[in-house]
Write a structure and sequence with these properties.
Order of helices and strands: EHEHHEE
Number of domains: 1
Shape: flat
Radius of gyration: 14 Å
Strand order of the largest sheet: 1-2
Largest sheet: 2 strands, parallel
Structural class: alpha+beta
Number of helices: 3
Helix content: 40-55%
Number of strands: 4
């Protein structure tokens, strides 16, 4: 997923599929491509997400705020 008007890409990595060596190699190629083309790729691990959604997503929220301090981010209708 790309966040509109930014260079931020987000991927949710399923633990099962992303444990295969072939998929890990593809993920690495994707990371290199993103770096070369000016994108920031953030990966959210499935298990980490289910353990604590807020912590898993906080790095993305922090980066978005750094890009645009006036950005209003809401969770369940409440500004965070």
């Amino acid at each position: 997923m790309r966040i509109k008007n930014t260079n931020i890409l987000i991927e949710a990595d399923g633990s099962y599929w992303h444990s295969f060596e072939k998929v890990k190699e593809r993920d690495e190629r994707k990371k290199v491509w993103c770096n070369k083309n000016g994108f920031e790729l953030f990966r959210i691990d499935e298990l980490e997400f289910y353990r604590n959604k807020d912590i898993a997503c906080q790095v993305i929220v922090d980066r978005m705020r750094k890009l645009d301090p006036s950005l209003i981010i809401k969770r369940n209708g409440v500004t965070i």
